[in-house]
């Protein structure tokens, strides 16, 4: 089954547009685990188990594991997600981007070592830096387009004077991803929930691509405006929230509190569907 098919099935089965982000930060763990980087797996597995019927995807952020030398725990977590929530696709958030020969290694890391269903990528080194990921047929690749952070404007909102129609850089990325770069139908785009007008613009340029939309919750993005701008019959969305779910409680009830927060976000997103 391809990533896009998995995302569609999980969206239907769990009645959800929510991507649960796994950004484990030991200093924010509940008291019993606090500060212990050896408990990253335990913390994340508890969140996965508490939200597996509420999410259309999971998104582990690799830096939160690598910073603690906890890649082995990420491998274990990937196996756990595969076994306990096989219907929920996993987007490995690694934001890779490098020359082709190095990208081949990054693609191998994401899809062979970790067994991810999709990955996040920076498109700014060009198509040859994206192509190695497309060799893994059926896997998804989300290109950064209009990111959720304020500084995203610094480059992504600049006009490209030499290109027909003089698009903004993020508009050009959306066009490339919908068109010539999408050789096997594997591409998606990352657009921030903090910029609903840009989500609408991206959706107009890329009507069928899946959109990964981080920025609701801790970053204050507008969940309702996000769904209205991004979701169409053909175009799937995965709206990511990480900290607002992971750290809904700092007590022993953290997994139950994460479930309650995920449920509330899922319901808000669903209520915004046309
Ligand atoms: O690619 C991403 O996932 C991403 C893109 C973007 O534009 N903004 C963004 O916040 N992210 C990621 O989405 C997650 C957001 O986390 P919270 O702000 O805690 O919900 C983090 O893992 C970020 O690295």
TrEMBL record:
It is an enzyme of class 4 (lyase). Pathway: Pyrimidine metabolism; UMP biosynthesis via de novo pathway; UMP from orotate: step 2/2. It catalyses: orotidine 5'-phosphate + H(+) = UMP + CO2. Keywords: Decarboxylase, Lyase, Pyrimidine biosynthesis. It comes from the Bacteria. Residues 17-258 form the Orotidine 5'-phosphate decarboxylase domain. InterPro entries: Aldolase_TIM (IPR013785), OMPdecase_AS (IPR018089), OMPdecase_type-2 (IPR011995), OMPdeCOase_dom (IPR001754), RibuloseP-bd_barrel (IPR011060). The keyword Cell membrane does not apply. The active site is at residue 95. One of its GO terms (biological process) is 'de novo' UMP biosynthetic process. One of its GO terms (molecular function) is orotidine-5'-phosphate decarboxylase activity. The keyword Transport does not apply. Its EC number is 4.1.1.23. NCBIfam families: pyrF_sub2. HAMAP family: OMPdecase_type2. Belongs to the OMP decarboxylase family. Type 2 subfamily. This is Orotidine 5'-phosphate decarboxylase. The lineage of its organism: Bacteria, Pseudomonadati, Pseudomonadota, Betaproteobacteria, Burkholderiales. The gene is pyrF.
